[in-house]
Design goal:
Order of helices and strands: EEHEEHHEEEE
Shape: elongated
Strand order of the largest sheet: 1-8-3-5-6
Helix content: 25-40%
Mean pLDDT: 93
Structural class: alpha+beta
Distance between the termini: 8 Å
Radius of gyration: 16 Å
Strand content: 35-45%
Number of helices: 3
Number of strands: 8
Low-confidence stretches: none
Length: 135
């Protein structure tokens, strides 16, 4: 069995991290699937999704800081829209994550959450959630 859900994420700035774990868990619950997996996909080229710590608010800040060090805005970039740094960060983080579903819940570690990463905001973004498995 498979179910597809989507929701919008409004963002307010560049380099913003939003915890979307609760929204993804709602999709898992609505699917009725108790054992399987959940794929979270962001259909954008300047936004990404990752699993990372959700207990300390300094972690998203620190990872964002590191990404800015790896890919700062550079005058040498040729892309006409001026958001090449955002494209690079998205390539590093990636457009999707897969999480095991067990007992109808996301099987995340104690400190883990699912984070939407905005690298070119403000925007309204889309997140797709595909839940696969058995009821």
């Amino acid at each position: 069995m498979t179910s597809l859900f989507d929701f919008s994420v409004p963002t307010s700035r560049q380099n913003e991290w939003l915890n979307i774990t609760a929204e993804v868990q709602k999709a898992v619950a609505a699917s009725g699937i108790t054992e399987g997996m959940c794929v979270v996909f962001v259909p954008h080229t300047t936004a990404a999704v990752t699993v990372n710590e959700n207990a300390d608010p300094d972690v998203p800040h620190d990872v964002g800081f590191a990404l800015n060090q790896i890919s700062p805005d550079r005058q040498e970039f040729r892309h006409s829209e001026g958001n090449s740094a955002a494209h690079t960060k998205t390539s590093l983080i990636g457009p999707s994550v897969t999480v095991i579903v067990s007992g109808g819940k996301l099987l995340l570690g104690t400190w883990q959450g699912i984070w939407f990463n905005e690298f070119d905001g403000p925007r309204t973004r889309r997140v797709l959630v595909r839940v696969l498995g058995e009821c």
